[in-house]
């Protein structure tokens, strides 16, 4: 079974926050905040990476966290976001056009920048794409990733506070202003649904200066008419809510997410890290999500994670099989000694002990059958998973495997870019003689694009093989 679960790490200038939800994404299982001493991060750039790594190691040890996969939220001020409008092109042409236009708003050349983008809307009249672009200097990103990597952790996704806040405050597609006040800074995001129009950072904790900064953002992007303000963060007074409402002349709503069991104070403090937990760490090449971790880096860390998972699964299976084997050997020698003490079968036929011996021999044969079956079936999980991966087509990502060795059934869960890709993947599996009875629920085909699917099928090489039995010659 392979899950893409991870721990959120939120970097601020003063604090580092750790957060993780349970597998059902309903309850927090890890939640902690560690102070970052002055001088470790200056102007959102890491100055003391080794010391930050030690803080992470300390956090993992104190919180007794076993999970190595992590998602990272990097400071907003270190990144650049922009919405572009481009004609409908192929993916490769679209990527090239985005990188060309990005030169107009990025402060440095594209060669020293890491960039990812996401299609957020399609104009029904012109068929143009609206695309959200996020970028960061390669040196800045690598410094955060390196700190995490040196702590023995495996980063799967990197995003910004504005992306996290837009996700967790999502509502209708009308304009909204999100203001999030933390102990580090204030994040201001102007958005339309999932579309980020602009983001800004206010370093002051003065409520009046925060409101003035937000007003400047709204006035600069007058084309986006806000219908509400979403206000979140720590130490917010009712007067602040009232002042925001009076300044923008719209309704003000508190930032909230009802899907998680968490008191209001803790939610407000960990809202950004919590939001990252709701993200599926997809491939950076997916045009429907943003992940600032470059494809080459992502592939490297995902490969390391997969190796760890394979090793762990193999170790568990080996321990299981050897435990059975040792017990079988012990019983076998005990029975052998018992048989020798009985002498010949003719001499014990009338004693009733022969019947006990035969019963024990039958029991050990059953155990050997199970051990043999387990050994035959469980020695190839990596081979099976590699085989499934080789049948994937473009637009398919798999984030969950469930291998039922007893029933020789495999279940996979993942995401398809569109219906055509999903059907092509199913057909690809059907063309392999080792897979049978491929079941794709009709519910997986309801949506046209961005489809979450569950698919199950039989794996013939796991079928039961004939095993050797212990025989008692008479």
Relevant terms:
single chain, 474 residues, alpha+beta, Nucleotidyltransferase, domain 5, Gyrase A, domain 2, five-stranded antiparallel β-sheet, five-stranded mixed β-sheet, 12 helices, 20 strands, globular, disordered C terminus
Question: What does this protein structure show overall?
Answer:
39% of the residues lie in helices and 28% in strands. It has 474 residues and is an alpha+beta fold. Among the domains are: 170-254, ATPase, nucleotide binding domain (Nucleotidyltransferase, domain 5), CATH 3.30.420.40; 307-378; 381-462, 2-Layer Sandwich (Gyrase A, domain 2). The protein has a 5-stranded antiparallel β-sheet. Strands 4-3-2-7-11 form a 5-stranded mixed β-sheet, sandwiched between helices. Strands 14-13-12-15-16 form a 5-stranded mixed β-sheet, sandwiched between helices. The relative contact order is 0.10. Mean pLDDT is 79; it is low at 283-288, 296-301, 307-317 and 465-474.
């Amino acid at each position: 079974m392979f899950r893409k679960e991870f721990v959120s790490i939120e970097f601020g200038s003063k604090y580092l926050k750790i957060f993780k939800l349970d597998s059902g994404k309903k309850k927090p299982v890890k939640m902690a905040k560690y102070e970052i001493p002055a001088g470790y991060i200056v102007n959102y750039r890491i100055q003391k990476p080794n010391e930050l790594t030690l803080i992470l190691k300390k956090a993992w040890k104190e919180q007794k966290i076993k999970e190595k996969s992590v998602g990272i939220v990097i400071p907003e001020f270190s990144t650049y976001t922009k919405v572009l409008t481009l004609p409908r092109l192929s993916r490769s042409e679209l990527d090239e056009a985005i990188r060309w236009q990005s030169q107009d708003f990025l402060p440095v050349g594209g060669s020293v920048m890491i960039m990812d983008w996401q299609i957020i809307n399609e104009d029904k009249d012109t068929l143009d794409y609206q695309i959200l672009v996020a970028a960061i200097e390669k040196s800045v990103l690598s410094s955060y990733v390196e700190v995490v990597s040196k702590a023995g952790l495996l980063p799967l996704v990197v995003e910004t506070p504005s992306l996290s806040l837009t996700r967790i405050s999502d509502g209708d597609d009308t304009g909204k202003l999100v203001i999030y006040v933390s102990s580090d800074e204030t994040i201001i995001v102007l958005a339309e649904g999932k579309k980020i129009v602009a983001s800004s950072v206010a370093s002051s904790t003065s409520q009046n200066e925060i409101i003035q900064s937000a007003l400047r953002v709204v006035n600069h992007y007058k084309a986006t008419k806000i219908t509400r303000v979403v206000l979140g963060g720590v130490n917010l007074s009712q007067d602040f809510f009232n002042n925001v409402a009076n300044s923008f002349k719209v309704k003000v709503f508190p930032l909230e997410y009802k899907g998680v069991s968490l008191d209001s104070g803790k939610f407000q403090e960990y809202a950004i890290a919590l939001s990252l937990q709701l993200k599926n760490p997809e491939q950076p090449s997916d045009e429907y999500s943003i992940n600032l971790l470059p494809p080459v880096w992502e592939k490297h860390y995902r490969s390391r994670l997969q190796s760890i998972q394979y090793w762990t699964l193999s170790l568990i299976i080996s321990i299981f099989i050897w435990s059975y084997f040792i017990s079988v050997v012990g019983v076998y020698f005990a029975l052998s000694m018992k048989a020798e003490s009985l002498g010949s079968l003719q001499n014990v036929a009338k004693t009733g002990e022969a019947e006990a011996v035969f019963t024990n021999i039958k029991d050990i044969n059953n155990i050997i059958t199970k051990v043999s079956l387990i050994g035959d079936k469980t020695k190839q999980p990596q081979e099976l998973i590699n085989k499934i991966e080789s049948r994937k087509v473009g637009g398919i990502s798999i984030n969950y495997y469930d291998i039922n060795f007893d029933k020789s059934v495999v279940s996979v869960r993942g995401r398809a870019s569109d219906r055509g890709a999903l059907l092509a993947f199913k057909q690809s599996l059907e063309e392999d003689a080792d897979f049978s009875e491929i079941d794709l629920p009709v519910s997986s085909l309801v949506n046209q694009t961005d489809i979450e699917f569950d698919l199950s099928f039989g794996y013939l090489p796991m079928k039961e093989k004939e095993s050797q039995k212990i025989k008692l010659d008479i």
